[in-house]
């Protein structure tokens, strides 16, 4: 019994760590701009493929450090490009939320097809950053999954410190609260929108690198994590980064538990049912604020 509970808990924390990194980037864009970036999942895929191309023997074979460095630069550039080309032209439109749903979905399809055209549909996999296995709470998991468990809280804490303590981070929070008022006090809102998208894309790329050695890479690699990230952002409360992180770990543990007891096929349906029940009683999400 103890071994079973330990296995479920460890599996849930591993899932929650990946979900938290993925969903925090999505939540950051929503909190700052009030839009959902549906291209966020394919940015995760792009990050994994770029890292594979640079680091793997099947690509350039330059090693993992070079792969991570190039991925960081590439994903920051991709985030900036999406903000400038796909989102920025519609900032002043009254239906920006609906329009950006369509434009970011279009960007997702374009990038996903581009990935398939460049890299093909054949399965690929990144070499783990940390090879081997680790015994954790009477459960054996890969060292790569242990790295995710350790690294995710560090990255999320760094993100919180950046948003809370740095001048740019406080500016991003101010823009999220009221962009017009931020402009009036001299904040360069357009610059902070770019930084927000770049930071969000970087988080997606990091998730892709970490998961790329645990799961096989396909052009649809980021599709399922995107759906889970959307659920988590809504479940935790729109506009609440803390709620998003808490919901990510909670959903990871719930998913691991449901998978163990009812199987992998029924788990997604039960998660959606749980989301509906929560929203019936708390439409603002777990830690979201009621807007009056």
Care to describe what's here?
It is built from eleven helices and two strands, in the order ααααββααααααα. It has 292 residues and is mainly α. A two-stranded antiparallel sheet has the order 1-2. A hairpin with a 2-residue loop joins strand 1 and strand 2. The protein is globular and about 60 Å long.
Oligomeric state of shown chains: single chain
What is Rg? Answer: 19 Å
Helix and strand sequence: HHHHEEHHHHHHH
- Biggest sheet character: 2 strands, antiparallel
**Beta strands, count:** 2
* Helical coverage, percent range: over 70%
Shape: globular
Question: TL;DR?
Answer:
With 292 residues, the chain is mostly helical. It is 72% helix and 3% strand.
Give the SSE layout.
Elements: H1 2-33, H2 40-55, H3 64-87, H4 96-119, E1 133-136, E2 139-142, H5 143-165, H6 167-177, H7 179-184, H8 189-211, H9 223-236, H10 241-262, H11 267-281
Antiparallel strand pairs: 1-2
Helix pairs in contact: 1-5, 1-6, 1-8, 1-9, 1-10, 2-3, 2-4, 2-8, 3-8, 5-6, 6-8, 9-10, 10-11
Describe the structure using short key phrases.
3% strand, 2 strands, mainly alpha, 292 residues, two-stranded antiparallel sheet
């Amino acid at each position: 019994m103890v071994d079973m509970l330990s296995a479920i808990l460890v599996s849930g924390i591993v899932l929650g760590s990946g979900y938290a990194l993925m969903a925090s980037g999505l939540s950051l864009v929503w909190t700052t701009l009030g839009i959902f970036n549906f291209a966020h999942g394919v940015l995760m895929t792009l990050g994994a493929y770029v890292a594979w191309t640079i680091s793997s023997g099947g690509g350039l074979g330059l090693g993992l450090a070079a792969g991570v460095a190039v991925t960081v630069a590439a994903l920051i550039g991709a985030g900036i490009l999406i903000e400038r080309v796909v989102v920025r032209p519609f900032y002043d439109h009254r239906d920006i939320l609906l329009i950006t749903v369509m434009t970011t979905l279009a960007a997702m399809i374009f990038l996903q097809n581009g990935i398939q055209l460049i890299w093909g549909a054949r399965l690929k996999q990144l070499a783990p950053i940390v090879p081997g296995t680790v015994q954790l709470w009477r459960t054996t998991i890969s060292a790569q999954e242990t790295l995710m468990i350790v690294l995710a809280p560090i990255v999320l804490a760094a993100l919180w410190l950046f948003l809370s303590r740095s001048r740019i981070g406080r500016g991003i929070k101010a823009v999220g609260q009221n962009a017009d008022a931020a402009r009036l006090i001299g904040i360069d809102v357009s610059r902070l929108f770019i930084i927000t998208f770049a930071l969000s894309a970087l988080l997606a790329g990091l998730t892709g690198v970490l998961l790329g050695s645990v799961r096989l890479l396909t052009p649809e690699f980021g599709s399922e994590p995107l759906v889970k990230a959307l659920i988590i952002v809504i479940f935790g409360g729109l506009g609440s980064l803390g709620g998003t992180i808490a919901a990510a770990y909670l959903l990871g543990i719930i998913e691991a538990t449901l998978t163990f007891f009812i199987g992998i096929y029924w788990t997604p349906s039960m998660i959606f049912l749980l989301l509906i029940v929560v929203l019936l009683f708390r439409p603002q999400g777990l830690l979201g604020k009621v807007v009056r």
